Amino acid sequence: MRKNSIKNTRINGEVQKELSNIIRGEIKDPRINPLTSVVAVEVAPDLKTCKAYISVLGDEKSQQDTIKGLKSAEGYIRTMLAKSINLRNTPQINFILDQSIEYGVKMSKMIDDVTKDIADKTEE
């Protein structure tokens, strides 16, 4: 199976959906922030490994605690994933902190500040 095949894309989407459900509803670790979302999932073509990009709305400590909590619950998450998705192999999950949403919000705020400054100068 190639990396960008239709089957691989469908598996990525299904694993992403199930990971979101498991993180939101099944895990009761207090370290995991309730505002945690699975941004993207990349399952390897051999179904052995998986990169899960996680976005956490909160400060730096909250983000690090959430990643630590997810890594410690990886075995349980894999078990729940195996029960919900029928794959030949259940992939080993590697959680990666994704800060692209936070970066986008920061850039948008900076653009708004600049346009506001320009508007203020044109009014004078």
How do the helices and strands line up, and which of them pair or pack?
Blueprint: H1 6-25, E1 36-43, E2 49-56, H2 60-72, H3 74-84, E3 92-97, H4 100-123
Parallel strand pairs: 2-3
Antiparallel strand pairs: 1-2
Helix pairs in contact: 1-3
How would you portray this structure in words?
This protein has helices spanning 6-25, 60-72, 74-84, 100-123, and strands at 36-43, 49-56, 92-97. By secondary structure, the protein is of the alpha+beta class. Strands 1-2-3 form a three-stranded mixed sheet, with helices on both faces. Strand 1 (36-43) and strand 2 form a beta hairpin. The longest helix is centred in the last third of the chain and has 24 residues, at 100-123.
What attributes does this structure have?
three-stranded mixed sheet, 4 helices, elongated
